[in-house]
Write the structure tokens for this entry.
Amino acid sequence: MDTQSASSADWPEPIEVLNEDSDCEIVLICEHAANHIPAEYDRLGVTEADLERHIAWDVGAAAVTRGLAETLGAPAFLGTYSRLLVDLNRPFGCLSSMPVRSEATSIPGNVDLTEAEFQRRRERVFDPFHDRITARLDARDAAGLPTRIVAIHSFTPVYLGVARPWHVGILFDQSADFAEATMAALAQDPALVVGANVPYVIDRDEDYAIPVFGTDRGNPAILVEIRNDLISDAAGIADWTRRMTRVLQDVSTQ
């Protein structure tokens, strides 16, 4: 299928957009919202079970993002393809952009990709996703609307055999004030273990949304990492949607 081919169930539009015209200052981004891989790729050689794991998407992140879009009335931009096909939160072409190995799992369908295949994934998925967000941020700037970027992700309780103690991490680059206010609001619940720049850190060579849509544009920006066992069912998703709604509303008034 070339870049001119019509969208279909197997090749959906690369971005789901909610409340695009909202003037809410929070702009939600969920790059790892879906685990879809078009059938022609034969799951890139991984199993059906692998597609349900963190290597293919961020479990629970899409549902929390949609919930926050509703409760906050905020614009939200969600990816519709698996991060294994192309990772929307990586600079295009970096080693983790189309990984040949994720955690301890080999991804055979990403081995020895041709330049034509690189470009296909860029034109079909990566560029349209980021172009849509860029256009909306440009329009917000032109209208004088303040913008705070909030990217919603999830992480595994255990990574390569090492347990992770945090319930939630707030990642940031230049937006320490926004991050610290968010962490302070979360920490009002003494049962929560909240961390700064855990379980990952923002790195321009390995991250996209926070450096590009946040730092480069002068927008306060944070990435929220919720442990995925906490948002793996309807009750957990509802709980964290309520929690993050309250936190982001509190921070937005400061």
In short: Residues 1-6 have pLDDT under 50 and may be disordered. Residues 135 and 222 are 20 Å apart (CA to CA). The two ends are 49 Å apart (CA to CA).
